[in-house]
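Hi W.,

Here's what went into the run:
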Amino acid sequence: MASAQDRDDELLGRVAQGDPAAVRALMARKLTPIYGLAVRMLGDAAEAEDVTQEVFLRAWRQAPHWTPGAARLDTWLYRVALNLCYDRLRRRREVPTETPPEQTDEGPAPDRGLEAADVGIRVAAALARLPDRQREAVVLSHYQELGNVEAAGLMGVSVEALESLLSRGRRALRVALADLA
Amino acid sequence: MDLNRFADLALAYGGDVSRWPATEREAATLLMAASPEATSPLLASQSDLDWALESWRTPRPREALEAAILASAPVQRPARLWRGWLWRTGLGAGLAAAGLAGVVAGVVLSGAVATMGELEVITAAVSAYDTLDLDLSGGV
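Here's what came out:
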């Protein structure tokens, strides 16, 4: 039975030939994870769409040059997506904007129910306030469900450093969401 | 695995041991069986945060995004498709053979009777034929 990597390599080979079915199949497999990663790193759906589109554009360009078995496509896609997210995060710091981030932490209110959507908004805001590397560790490990070795590799740190980032990130989130968690 | 390491893992990866690194799970399970009173509170202290994190669901990508990505994907070149259809139907082979026969006949005749001006015309015709880019090997 072909591994996920073999299937990705095979699909990308067909993408390079201009096979529209392979394009659709690859997009069906990768679009949601890449978009989810970008949304959670940036906290902004419109920017996440731009990043996702650029990731796929680069994947299409890379397809003819892809060497099957040399690297995991997921790892390559995540690396490109993270680089693009960091470019945007850097630009935000360099160019202060007048408009506030899309998701703001409204904090607990006396009559605030614990609807999942409300909690989600609070979590998004708390995550957005984490230092970038802590947020990246939480997103890769918890949301993208990457193994510790793969997540650490993507971040260019040791597994021990990844665990330290995760611990500090989760501790900060527990403080920010103390009334929930 | 001792309790300190168990606590570190719970803090880093959360209260669900199935999400911990595969290399740590067996030792963690043994410790949980041996010391449930010490390990259970450590896991429980993280499960509320796990629940909160799970509450943040990202929206589905918009159809417009999917359409934009599809539009940017590589496409098969129409010329190649047309050429493939020609070869599959046999028309391509017929056209190529007819064209080649005409050129060969022209070259043979020109060698016998053509003036210099006519030779230039024939040479131009051969060049024009070359630009038809027909694949005589039958490739698609």
